[in-house]
């Protein structure tokens, strides 16, 4: 039988296991022009929480009682498509199914000899491109400037920090445990890191860590952590809004400090983005990330959970901060 994971309910607040439903079906028949894919690695990401709601957004919501999808690495186990052969590995936005057919459109072949397959969902995939293009196209860091990264121990944040160091910047990370703080400094080369869960005054802690102020803030979390960084932003600073995981499960619209006076008085740029905004520059980004990785200038962490049945729990664990780096399920 062939397992599939469907969206069972639209969550109210934090998602629960009951919001997912498992079904079984027969393995599909491959038609001309198609390939049969076997799921190998599944990416779970915070942005998917937004797709579980039916609110208008930059991407279509998941449909109730339909398969959830995300970035997946799959193996071609049968092909009736001239572009693919049995044994190829591919990356694409695919359904949460053990096996599925596909017409091959938008599937990208990946090379297991050049990098671990899971890396194509992380540092050499959307994660790396999000970090690279968000920082370089919006943050535009200059050598000697100070970058602050929230959600710094996550897949995007840890990559942003390393790119900042490659570009000659001072980099400060914000994370949720002493272990993650130590990892940011020892493994990823951050100049300093702050555990927001044990810090009473984040505004002061950020000021102490950034004696010259904050030039670029790469924001993955939003909320009160971002309020504290905004209070330390420099004139002509750039705020890159990549994510807001602290707010994704809110059931009402939270009210925080009004940031407009800071933006005006300090001539600060604040811009949100999605990685597909820079799709025309993906080849450039992929080439640069590959070069840095090959040269040993980039490192990456993965939290790999085993088993198709554990995909929903791996997703839920993102909101508990249980991942170090990229959260991936190995099937």
From TrEMBL:
Residues 17-329 form the Enoyl reductase (ER) domain. The keyword Cell membrane does not apply. One of its GO terms (molecular function) is oxidoreductase activity, acting on the CH-CH group of donors, NAD or NADP as acceptor. It comes from the Bacteria. It holds the Pfam family ADH_N_2. InterPro entries: ADH-like_C (IPR013149), ADH_N_2 (IPR041694), ER (IPR020843), GroES-like_sf (IPR011032), MDR_fam (IPR045010), NAD(P)-bd_dom_sf (IPR036291). The keyword Electron transport does not apply. This is Enoyl reductase (ER) domain-containing protein. The lineage of its organism: Bacteria, Pseudomonadati, Bacteroidota, Flavobacteriia, Flavobacteriales.
